[in-house]
Design a protein that fits this description.
five-stranded mixed beta sheet, Rev_trsase/Diguanyl_cyclase, binds magnesium ion, 308 residues, Rossmann fold, alpha/beta, Alpha-Beta Plaits, 2 domains, binds 3'-deoxy-guanosine-5'-triphosphate, Diguanylate_Cyclase, five-stranded parallel beta sheet
Amino acid sequence: MKILIIDDSKIERVIIRSYLQHLDHEVFDAENGETGIAMFAECNPDIVLLGVVMVGINGYQVAAQIRDKFTDWVPIIFLSGKTAPEDIMIGIEAGGDDYLPKPIKKQILLAKMTAMERIAAMRTQLLQTTKKLEIANEELERLATLDGLTGIANRRHLDITMAKELARAKRHAQPLTFIIADIDFFKKYNDHYGHIQGDECLKAVASILDSSLRRPSELVARYGGEEFCMLLPNTDIKNAKLVAEKLVNAVRSLEFRHEGIDKQAIVTMSFGVISLVPSRDVTVKELMLQADEKLYQAKENGRDQWII
Ligand code: GH3
Ligand code: MG
Ligand code: MG
Ligand code: MG
């Protein structure tokens, strides 16, 4: 342990040093409060042994300043000839952890130091555990935003982001584009290839949609089943059309065979697109319904296309 002794009596400092001498401690000492505080910052002690009556600032003030300036807790034990109950009270209230009357008995000092060391070790362990929990919590929070199968954003994250982005678009009177996409004839795909391969297809589709929209503000989420949503802040109709065309082609470019339809067929997707500068009364639900309506039209119109 690193031990800092702050006491203006040289004899006292020498005596305490002698008590600690044969133990494996590194001992620093200061002859007044000001030097003691400076030394505290410098040597980063594990424990402070602090006199009370000193020239300049007294021990109570030293303890209070240490507690005030340094957030990390270090045990402080007062060593003082002032032993009235109120002295002890003041010392503890100032930030001390224990209070030993002078003349100091070696065994008592060492025993009290051991107790403080134990508390400090428990505290360190607790801080480490807290840190680990914080990291684990962050990871859990991140995982809670992801879809288990495809690894892209999930419905929950989509709902939260949509509410936020809709509010932002309203606030800044900016355009917002929202897209719902649905794989064409996916039931037939599952029927033909089985659900395991169906899942592979979902992963590939999610991945190509996700990598087609790379701006940090753009969100691709799995809405559920074989339906995906895309949210593009600050994107107007003109750009929305370009994006939709790009997405239709991106899914085609996977060239995922779909013999459940016919020998030459590949997996395609239909997209319902809406783009608007939202007025104050527009809701997330309305955006969803409108995009869904466009998606329905794309399906009716022969699939493998976008409708805005
Ligand atoms: P349409 O072109 O009209 O969209 O036809 P569709 O067959 O794709 O539409 P429908 O909604 O009837 O079928 C969706 C299918 O998606 C049914 C379901 O078995 C499948 N599906 C939903 N979630 C999953 C999943 O997580 N994994 C797999 N493999 N299939 C899924
Ligand atoms: Mg569907
Ligand atoms: Mg469907
Ligand atoms: Mg479908």
